[in-house]
Amino acid sequence: MDKIAKRIFSRVFFVGVAILVQVVWIILSVVFLGSRLPFMTILVEAVSLLAVLWLVNKDINPAYKLAWTILILAVPIAGAVIYFMFGKSRLAKDLNEKLEAARQETGEFLGEKPEVMRKLEELDPEAARQSRYICRYAGFPAYQKTETRYFRVGEELYLAMIEELNKAEHFIFLEYFIIDDGIMWQGILDILEYKVRMGVDVRLIYDDVGCVNTLPANFYLQLRKRGIQCEVFNPFLPIASVVLNNRDHRKIMVIDGHTAFTGGINLADEYINRKKRFGYWKDTGIMLKGEAAWSFTLMFLQMWSVLSGQKQDYLKYRPHEWHQEEFEDDGFVQPYGDTPLDHETVGENVYLNIINRAKKYIYIFTPYLVTDNEITTALCLAAKSGIDVRIVTPGIPDKKLVFLLTQSYYDKLIQSGVRIFEYKPGFLHAKSFVCDDEIATVGTINLDFRSLYLHFECGVWMYRSEAVLQIKEDALSLFKECREITWEDCKRKSSVKRLLQSILRLFAPLL
């Protein structure tokens, strides 16, 4: 009863009900007017047709077009209303313009590094092509002089975070999708409060929808009272709006401009297995020490500039003034971000470039396997060409419907020679690719439509870094803890399950 009462009186319940009431009211108003004014029915049908024509001609993923087209044509009034309220993938115009302005301001600090690219071109022209794409379309260059360290579980990453936070002398920047009060967050918060007293510049950005079930609505005010500067991304308000689609799914921690963390791990106890939710929680992360951390510093400051409305002195946060020692070379390291501001799906294209480059193997960790035609085709073609393609998904899901949808993609992939493994001990939340002992990426980007098209995301692309082989070793170890899905398993699916999966596939881009 306590859990039910807590949910009923939660912020997400009240906001959700308010939005639902608005949607239903608009639909009923249109239906009522249509029954009283015959031309309204014609008008609604005309608007629905125009919406479909507009969708068909938009430069967006075909699967996304199809899902919305089916909904609009199946229920013309409700479908059209829901589409215009929630279907678009662009942020409000003013926020869009501010973000673009922030990117322009930081552009002068993020140009391609000719000497780094010359070395990469000499070593591997194909890798240089991938790196050049990221620099041109994500706006972040490749670096050397950066050490990498891969973490195979959240517990290890958390210990490293605490160690590095304790060393902070100048600034700490954090940007996270989920924060939940508990052992992990309290351990970090204690350090943040101490550092504020020592004069360290401490800033936090969190996503309001990501934290709607875990933090009070006034959490940002609580932090500000403690001296921690805090901004909320896209507040979850009781207003039906398209901007609810776009969330800040990034996980970024930057310390003094020379150390940065990212990966799949949010600031909540399940990520370090201090709270059991879906068996053992397997997640991964990466730490950068060196020049590449500068990209994460600017990535954070771009968002901070937009949310706070404050102009930033970006050069103030370069670490060269207080960290004179050079870091060791560890291959080539390239942080990158992806935004829904444009139609350039950087995260997906990074994945596609890695898949298409593979000559021997490609190993993938993903919590959700809800791929579009481009990625599915690339994976199938790679496997058909004799490349060892393996994908690890959860054994215990966090979202049952999405897991059912994930399993619907197994058939075609397995028939093409892709090997799929489900992680038996629990939930796999990692988002990692590794290829041919040379290239890898670790970050926040899931293989689903929301991550690839609607959210703010980030990751690190690496070439011949120590972390690349560490990720491979983790994958080889992980396969032993998994159950491999066979074609016989696929054939044993019941007719009811197949029917449900077919229906879910129609609306996969909307989930």
From TrEMBL:
PROSITE patterns with a match to the protein in the record:
PLD
Key word Chaperone present? no
Q: Which UniProt keywords apply?
A: Cell membrane, Lipid biosynthesis, Lipid metabolism, Membrane, Phospholipid biosynthesis, Phospholipid metabolism, Repeat, Transferase, Transmembrane, Transmembrane helix
Q: Which Pfam families match?
A: PLDc_2, PLDc_N
Compartmental location: Cell membrane
GO molecular-function terms, A-Z = cardiolipin synthase activity
Q: What is its EC number?
A: 2.7.8.-
This chain belongs to which protein, by name? Answer: Cardiolipin synthase
